[in-house]
Amino acid sequence: MSESKPGQRPALLIVEDDPGLQAQLKWSYEDFDVFIAGDRASALTLLRSEEPSVVTLDLGLPPDPDGTTEGFAVLDEIMKLRPQTKVIVASGHGARESALKAIEKGAYDFYQKPVDIDALGLIVRRALHLSRIESENRNLATRATSDNKVLGRMITAAPEMIKVARTIERVANTNVSVMLLGASGTGKELLAKGLHDSSSRSTGSFIAINCAAIPENLLESELFGHEKGAFTGAVKTTEGKIELASGGTLFLDEVGDIPLQLQVKLLRFLQERTIERIGGRKSIEVDTRIVCATHQNLEAMIADGRFREDLFYRLAEIVVRIPSLAERPGDATLLAKTFLMRFAKEMNPQVKGLAPDALAAIDGWNWPGNVRELENRVKRAVIMADGKLVTAADLDLPGGESEDSAPLNLKTAREVTDRKVIRHALARSEGNISSTARLLGISRPTLYDLLKQYDLQS
Predict the structure, then answer these.
(1) Cα(47)–Cα(13) distance, integer angstroms
(2) Residues in contact with 341: Cβ distance below 8 Å, sequence separation at least 6, in sequence order
(3) pLDDT over 90 for what percent of the chain?
């Protein structure tokens, strides 16, 4: 989609064969660069050259001015060439049936002839607004997959997180042990993998193990391996994760959950760089780099005697503290848009972006579950969304009404208020459209337009 630069007017293509109506429509949109086409060939030529965001299309075009076949052919071509274009169709021929068919083919909206210039202008401007929101989502998602990636895979624009990434890059090619400290869901494993990929060990294995997810009686075998017959069920010799990661990196997540007895054995490996499998008598040299992570306060655990101080200093030669998502201004929105584009492609292609109230809600939420919570909410919202834009309700978040999360843009603020007032009016009139329109002081067609624009159910 072509983007209008500051000071430039957006392009509007009017496909209409009536010369009188052409002139009337052209002079009704002084805030647009209006282009007129009277047939399929000229309409498609202007579509390619001017890349308009919005098109109004009369379905009754020559050589079938009394029917709709040519108009639908033009609509099909537009959807094929530029599917993001917002097409508003008009027809005086079986209007309702034609309108429904046009919507099924990808049209944004419809209007009936004779033309009400003011009503059509409202639809056109709302279509342009939606087009700009969708374009912003696409552009931000594209930037997120390029300019905002650090360590090759982590998406961020926050200076706090970029500083973390630069620290990891600096220590990647050393053999020091690195401890990542941060709350659950902040991306500790992603950073550990980034460290591995940035190091000279990148051709070796990266193996991750969550120490909190494995029962104590099995964790030693998982880490150090065992010989055949070492215990009941040990039917063959099995290498442990430390040995399997030789030449590469072993990531120990939730290292604070390693029991004290096993901490002694892990310390011995870090000091001597050799291991013995359970039931074995032979020392095996292993060249494995350890990167570990925890959300627990290890210093408090040391004071309580639950974690060995000497092991801590072996594991924490370099300590990197990872900020929570709430401490990374702007990243929640950046990540949400990236997740949305990925999940929409996989699960619900009709979803194109985030509604203004969703953006406000994302900015206002504290994200106690960090990036993991954000990803899960966006995934669920994309699956459940009925409209093209994911709303705050789809995300199961408050609508961003607090001072901290109030929209900074006046247009967005008005839309948030519109949604709230329309919902109150619908509730007060028990869903009756005529009563709701009277309460709001608007016409029924205008209310229908607003309900569709904001994806509200009557």
Answers:
(1) 8
(2) 137, 138, 141
(3) 45
Cβ atoms of residues 204 and 245 within 8 Å: yes
Q: What is the spatial distance between Cα 389 and Cα 455, in angstroms, rounded to a whole number?
A: 8
Residue 95's H or E segment, with its range, is helix 95-105
Q: Helix count (H) and strand count (E) of the chain?
A: 18, 18
What residues have CB less than 8 Å from 232, skipping those under 6 apart? none
**pLDDT value at position 149?**
61
What angle, rounded to 10 degrees, do the helices at 95-105 and 69-81 form?
20
**CB contact at 8 A, 241 and 262:** no
The CB density around residue 88, as the number of other CB atoms within 10 Å, is 21
Torsions phi, psi of 358, nearest 5? -70, -45
- Cβ(338)–Cβ(196) below 8 Å: no
Residue 178 Ramachandran class (φ > 0 left, ψ -120 to 50 alpha, else beta): beta
The radius of gyration computed from the CA coordinates of the chain, to the nearest angstrom, equals: 30
Whose structure tokens read 């002694």? 264
41-73 exposure pattern, b = at least 16 Cβ within 10 A, e = fewer: eebbebbeeebbbbbbbbbbbeeeeebbebbbe
C-alpha triplet 138, 141, 144: angle, nearest 5°: 150
Q: How many residues does the chain have?
A: 458
Q: Which residue blocks in 181-315 are alpha helix, DSSP H?
A: 188-197, 216-224, 241-244, 260-272, 298-303, 309-315
pTM: 0.59
As a whole-number percent, the residues of the chain with pLDDT over 70 amount to: 88
> Which tens digit of pLDDT belongs to each residue from 284-332?
999 999 999 999 999 999 999 999 999 999 999 999 999 999 988 778 8
Give residues with Cβ within 8 angstroms of 418, minimum separation 6: 450, 454
